[in-house]
């Protein structure tokens, strides 16, 4: 059973573009509740919409608060995202561990992100219950705001009831019928025969088998076969078309 969706809280975000990108990251993985704490340039911000790339519903419903305490007042589980503890002793979890707990936790949960330049202040981390830290290259621990949000949102989606799809699966075409493959192979062989490729003659059968294996291995679809045959036809025609 999936628990309530976590709230995403951005504390003192500096740029409207980053708020929009965070909203886009959220909606990609089924999160919709965004809370903003004292955004630097006020709200609404005209720069947020274009960067959201269609995630306008998240921006339109965003709630504004003056302090972090107010923003998470109704949440029983509050996670502070930070790359270091900042002198505050708290349990430390990864995004995967955090969302695993959120999925089964009673009550609301919030994941809190600090401003782009400085991250959360020590007092803000202290207000939260748990520190959420992403394992990262110690020599380059630099995630932008939207990247940090998308890591959490993606982990949430893996255990949620959201109906997410893999876009590339819908775009795949079925394999081409054997008749189309045979036509493509025959066209290849005719061009290679004309160019004297099958030499010496006693090796021609083995060479043809190797060519057939090469052309049938990938599982060409109809569009790919048509495209490659068009290429072959162009190479066979010494006169370019007007």
Automatic annotation (TrEMBL):
Where is this chain's protein located in or outside the cell?
A: Cytoplasm
Keyword entries, A-Z: Cytoplasm, Methyltransferase, S-adenosyl-L-methionine, Transferase, tRNA processing
* CDD domains linked: SpoU-like_TrmJ
Query: Which Pfam families has this protein been placed in?
Result: SpoU_methylase
Q: What EC numbers are recorded for this enzyme?
A: 2.1.1.200
Is-annotated flag, keyword Methyltransferase?
yes
What EC class does the entry list? transferase
The molecular function GO annotations come to: RNA binding; tRNA (cytidine(32)-2'-O)-methyltransferase activity; tRNA (cytidine(32)/uridine(32)-2'-O)-methyltransferase activity
Q: Which reaction does it catalyse?
A: uridine(32) in tRNA + S-adenosyl-L-methionine = 2'-O-methyluridine(32) in tRNA + S-adenosyl-L-homocysteine + H(+); cytidine(32) in tRNA + S-adenosyl-L-methionine = 2'-O-methylcytidine(32) in tRNA + S-adenosyl-L-homocysteine + H(+)
Gene Ontology biological-process annotations:
tRNA nucleoside ribose methylation
| Coiled-coil parts of chain | none
**How does the annotation summarize its subunit structure?**
Homodimer.
NCBIfam families from the xrefs? rRNA_methyl_1 (TIGR00050)
- Family assignment from sequence similarity: Belongs to the class IV-like SAM-binding methyltransferase superfamily. RNA methyltransferase TrmH family.
What is the purpose of this protein? Catalyzes the formation of 2'O-methylated cytidine (Cm32) or 2'O-methylated uridine (Um32) at position 32 in tRNA.
This one is known as tRNA (cytidine/uridine-2'-O-)-methyltransferase TrmJ
